[in-house]
Every structure is written in C-alpha cells, then in structure tokens.
C-alpha cells in the first residue's frame, strides 16, 4: 500500500518521569509529578507526529522485543502506522530507556552502547519496496551500513529523504534533501567550530537544505552557495522539551512533502516543535494539522534574518 512517508530508524519504549524542579545533581532529590510508559525514539516520535498531521506512515528499524512490542504495537495501531517491516525478537527485551524530564531539560538513561555493540545488530534492513511506495523518506543515521543503504535505496528510487545529526562529509548528508543537525551533535563532533562557518561546509557538501538547531537559540539554515538564514524559535511556556528535535525533523519532512519554500518549512517545523514543548508526552499529545495552523496563525512570526 502506498504511503506518504517511510521512516527508517530508532523506536524505543520509554519510561518517562516528569519531575517538579530542576534535575537533581549528585545526591539530590526531585519530586516525580507523573510517570508515563510510552513510545519514543526519533523515528517512532516522528511517525506519530506525521500521522497526527494526516499522513500515512510506515516504519522500519529495531526489532521489537518481549518488553517493548505490546506498547509500541498498541500506539502504532492507534496512529495507523504500518509496522509490517518490523521484526519481533522475543529473545531480548527490546530497545528501552528511562528519562527524567524537568521543563526545558532531560536526562536519558539507556542501554544504547550495549545495543549497538551487539553483533549482529538487532535491527532490520530498510524496506526497498516501502521506500519505492513512499513519497518522502526519513532516515536516522544510527544503523551504520543499514542507514547508508536506506539512503541509497531512496536515491535510486528518486525519493527525497531527510536525515539528522550526521557529518557534512557522510554519505547520508551528501544526497539528503534536508539534514537537521542539533547543537548537541555539533558540540560533540565539531567542538569549537563557529556555527556559520560549519554550516557553510554542510551547505556546500550537498544540494539539499542544511539546518542547525540550538534549543532556544537561533535556527540557522542554508543551501549550497547561498546566504545563511536565521530564524528565532517561537517562545512558549515549556512543559517538556523531550523529543523537540524529533518534532522539528517531522516538521521538515512535512514541509518537504508539501513543497514549502525553505523559510516556510523552517517556520512550520519550529512551530510544531514549540507546540509540542507545551505538552507531555508526545505519544499522547500529538496535534492535528488544524491545531498547528491555529498556533502558527496566533503566534508571532519568528524574526527571519539573512547573513551575507
């Protein structure tokens, strides 16, 4: 069956504790306001959001395990996400994490180092047929050769794809229609780099749109040979910033599919991420397209700047 978006990447079962004050340090204490057990991960979050915007989604990625398949499957059914490309492996628990959330901050505890060190990897190959049937593809970079294979399949099928957090000289970035690079990734992989200079290297390494996000800081974006554009994020009261980056990427995917020009695409993605920051958790608070459009209409337009 034809879909709007095929997403290949991380799906996680998250146990999320939202706490009343700042995240504790050392031997500190924080009061838990509420606890949710629900889906997470870059791909699962984006698929739920895009479904809420009225798109048909299919996903591929990690095998679902004994502790994850029931909840992930229930939410996939709720959001009408095609999971026929997901394998179930009851011999292991599945990909999980524990997250502490306090307003604009979060602390993630997981088993990802162990997960990615296992051989063979507990994830499926990208689905060539699903990619051919999709209009747009979203690819997480975490699955080594499998992520690169997904990009190659999308390119071969003539499908634009959006990725996140990969190097400017990586195969994923070189052919991407858009790459959203977080502040955390830049700080880890390009310490000390000046954002505008680094963005120029990204932009000139691809024919796609390169976007740098920085939390509450300015969003920078550019294309090969063009000026660096900047947009200030929307200002909202933050309940939880968990998944804001996943949400922004989902907004870029939506804008690409709808043919938005770059400024409108970034504005839509920024608005969607801001709206989700007022809600908790993503899985139970996915907005409709009408809600997003109402938010964008009622909220000030972030200032758009252009650097020479």
Question: Which keywords apply here?
Answer:
globular; alpha/beta; 35% helix; 23% strand; 11 helices; four-stranded mixed β-sheet; 308 residues; nine-stranded mixed β-sheet; UDP-N-acetylmuramoyl-L-alanine:D-glutamate ligase
Class from secondary-structure proportions: alpha/beta
CATH topology: UDP-N-acetylmuramoyl-L-alanine:D-glutamate ligase
| Number of strand segments | 15
H/E order of the elements? Answer: EEEHEEHEEEHHEHEHEHHEEEHHHE
Proportion in helices: 25-40%
Q: What number is the mean pLDDT?
A: 94
Strand order of the largest sheet: 4-1-9-10-11-12-13-14-15
- The portion of residues forming beta strands comes to 15-25%
**CATH H level, superfamily name:** Ribokinase
Q: Which CATH-level-2 architecture? A: 3-Layer(aba) Sandwich
Describe what is shown at a glance.
The protein is α/β, with parallel strands linked by helices. It has eleven helices and 15 strands.
What does this molecule look like?
There is one protein chain. The protein has 308 residues and is an alpha/beta fold. It has a single domain, classed as UDP-N-acetylmuramoyl-L-alanine:D-glutamate ligase. Helix content is 35%, strand content 23%. It has a nine-stranded mixed sheet, with helices on both faces. Strands 3-2-7-8 form a four-stranded mixed sheet. Strands 5-6 form a two-stranded parallel sheet. β9 (136-139), α5 and β10 (161-164) form a beta-alpha-beta unit. The mean pLDDT is 94.
């Amino acid at each position: 069956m034809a879909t709007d978006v095929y997403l290949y990447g991380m799906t996680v079962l998250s146990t999320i504790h939202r706490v009343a004050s700042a995240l504790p340090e050392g031997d500190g204490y924080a009061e838990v306001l509420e606890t949710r057990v629900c889906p997470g991960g870059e791909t699962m979050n984006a698929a739920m959001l895009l479904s809420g915007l009225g798109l048909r989604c299919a996903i591929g990625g990690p095998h679902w395990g004994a502790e994850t398949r029931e909840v992930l499957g229930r939410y996939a059914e709720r959001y009408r996400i095609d999971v026929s490309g997901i394998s179930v492996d009851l011999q292991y628990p599945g990909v999980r994490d524990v997250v502490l959330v306090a307003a604009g901050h979060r602390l993630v505890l997981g088993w990802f180092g162990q997960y990615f060190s296992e051989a063979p990897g507990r994830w499926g190959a990208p689905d060539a047929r699903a990619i051919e049937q999709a209009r747009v593809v979203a690819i997480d970079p975490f699955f080594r050769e499998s992520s690169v294979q997904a990009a190659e399949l999308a390119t071969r099928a003539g499908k634009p794809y959006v990725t996140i957090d990969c190097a400017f000289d990586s195969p994923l970035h070189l052919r991407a229609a858009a790459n959203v690079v977080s502040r955390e990734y830049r700080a880890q992989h390009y310490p000390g780099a000046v954002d505008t200079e680094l963005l120029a290297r990204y932009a000139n390494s691809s024919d796609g749109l390169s976007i740098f996000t920085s939390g509450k800081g300015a969003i920078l974006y550019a294309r090969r040979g063009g000026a660096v554009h900047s947009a200030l994020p929307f200002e909202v009261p933050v309940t939880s910033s968990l998944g804001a980056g996943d949400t922004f990427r989902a907004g870029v995917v939506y804008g690409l599919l709808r043919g938005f020009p770059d400024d409108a695409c970034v504005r839509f993605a920024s608005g969607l991420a801001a709206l989700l920051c007022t809600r908790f958790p993503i899985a139970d608070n996915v907005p409709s397209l009408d809600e997003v459009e109402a938010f964008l209409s009622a909220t000030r337009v972030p200032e758009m700047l252009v650097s020479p």
